[in-house]
Fold this protein.
Amino acid sequence: MAGHPVSANAAPVRRVGALDEDVAAPSRRLLHVAAATGLVLALGWVVDRTAAAAAVLVATQVAVGVAVGAAVVLVLAYVTRAGWLASVRRAPEALMMSLPVLAPVVLVGLALAVPLYVWTDAHLVAHDELLAHKSGWLNVPAFLLRAVLILALWMWLAKRLRRTSLAQDASRAAPDDGPALRWSAIFLAVLAVTWSVATFDWLMSLQPHWFSTMYAWASLAGSIVSALAATTLMVLFLERSGPFRGILTERHRHDLGKLLFGFSTFWAYLWFCQYMLIWYSHIPEETSYYVVRTSSTWMPQVFACLALGWGIPFFGLMTRRAKISRHRLVLMSIALLLGRWLDVHLMVAPAVGSPASILWQVPALIGVFALLVWASRVAFARAPRVPVGDPYLVESLPPKEVAE
Amino acid sequence: MSKRWIHGTFEDEHQLLAATAAVREQGYRVEDIFTPYPVHGLPEAMGLRPSRLGVVCFVLGAIGCALALAFQYWTSATDWPINVGGKPFDSLPAFVPIAFEITILFAGLGVVLALFLRCRLGPGASSFQPDPRVTDDRFVLVVRLEGATHTAAECQKLLAAHGAVHTEDRLEELVA
């Protein structure tokens, strides 16, 4: 296949975009759902502050992981010049564009969760040498300031990437992926640092005496899996509801299946790397994390998390037939998303010492994901369903769309 | 009975794909296709069955995993137990990395060996090349002529109609 399709191909490809029937913007029902869950959680805040705050923290962290992970999927496709994704690229792009809506919610989640972090307890810090030593980094103003800066940076980069993509559409010149490539490289470099800081701050510091250099890695792998699962669900939904009918091919499904399979295994690999090194060396300051989680209260959930996040999808997506089956992809994507939620839940709940109530967890999850879905659908409706100016689009479209 | 093949040389992969579909539609048997690089969509156009190497890979991986776990259990818990940091002799987490490596080793090497056996590749294997340019910029479609249903001339005409720059009638030459 030619690396750079000749510009003669551009005309029929543009027509695919031009055929665009208006993609309907989503109804406001999703926003009503989010508002209703907000009320339930306000009640939770009054009844059981710790449990409600933990539920909101977990839900917002999972959701921001999906949005940032979608950006990672998008930029990886740009920097590797992966032509296969081009025709359905608007799906991860739309998921990424939920960031401007999610970022304030994430910030509210973190602000509500401040009492959950033991290093905010001045009395405790005064009597704990280690926490006193870390208080230069772990203090409330610095924590919130870093959160604002990181979320703002992610939002700005997401908007840059989106603008680059839309500029590609509008450009009548020869297709060019130079600007997209540049911003993708910048995004990856920035994310490598900011993601580590963010996870150390927002999740790992719930147990401030404990540390792991694998933590950011494992959680980034988990967020990429969740983003791939969300992308898979989104493209299959868009195929069913119209915009991607005739655009999404078997090859796309196969590739997404392969990525789900591969990245869930990558996540399990990193999860086990963190666990095994700590188990092996058996140093009390490190094992404290797993001593709690392998107790009878949490152990069943740890196994459920590994089964949903890796075991079930590993065998469920192993064959080619499974990877191209829509039904199987939907089931496995849901399993992986639940596994990701359980993973984050197990980072938070044992640390705050609350067997968090399902009463607040379910509304938090539904509410935050209603916002994520709503924002993604709005973003999707605002651009041509196919990136008509992408130089690799012809590689990704089914042959008949190009030949016409 | 003599064996007879028609070679069609193409310069363009799209013409090759169309020609492959056309000859199969006309009832010819595609013996083989020589290309300088993997052409997307060609296996489907040739009507190749999905590869069964995946099954071989899985079975060998499972065997490797089972063997590695059994061997480690035998050495560290049965034959020569050593106290490592006070951990139980039969500690599964300690066995996982090696089981993982051996799984990959068995699956990876096994699948290569299976491929070599199935394709009869190896030292001393003879090779056939219809035209040295198939390693550069030409594609050669080899059609097997069977029975009396089709004549060589018809087949050559069909290939030429789909853009073959050169066609050739060959007897008893291709080593299967």
